Amino acid sequence: MDDDVIACSLDAGQLKGRLEWIAALNARSLKSFSREELTLTLDYEPAAIADVRKMVEREQSCCAFLDFTIAERPGCVRVSIVAPENAREAAEALFEPFASRVVQEVARPCGCNGGCGA
Q1: What are the angstrom distances between the C-alpha of 38 and each of 29, 51, 93, 103, 108?
Q2: In angstroms, rounded to a whole number, what is the distance separating the alpha carbons of residues 28 and 18?
Q3: The pTM is what?
């Protein structure tokens, strides 16, 4: 896994939509999260299993460098996301959208967060 390229395959518009979808899922169903080094653990309400599977499937296709696992546990659906060692410096930024209930601003191709029309 350490040789994988650390890059998302979504363009800015797709990324914004994905982050909004994840934030909405989290607002509805995320019970708790924790992070240890290169692993983020998310616990969702059991009723969210279909959406959790959809999220993981989508994220595996655009962020293949991250390792996702889903486990149905008593009282929750647990998702573990593991970043490769070569993503250690970027792990905070990589994990933040998965643990957030707030839609993040997405930088435009010009590098700003809006207002320029890009």
Answers
A1: 23, 24, 12, 23, 27
A2: 15
A3: 0.79
Output b/e per residue, 50-84; b: 16+ Cβ within 10 A.
ebbeebbeebeeebebbbbebeeeeebbbbebbbb
Identify the pLDDT of residue 103: 55
| Other Cβ atoms closer than 10 A to 29 | 19
Q: Tell me if residue 32 falls in helix, strand or coil.
A: strand
The CATH class for the domain spanning 12-99 reads alpha beta
Q: How far apart are the first and last CA of the chain?
A: 34
Tell me the CA distances in angstroms from 28 to 20, 35, 37, one per residue in order: 12, 20, 26
- What is the DSSP annotation of 46-109? GGGHHHHHHHHHHHHHH-TTSEEEEEEETTEEEEEEE--GGGGGGHHHHHHHHH-SSPPP---T
Q: What is the pLDDT of residues 23-34, one digit of tens each?
A: 999 999 999 999
d(CA 42, CA 91): 15
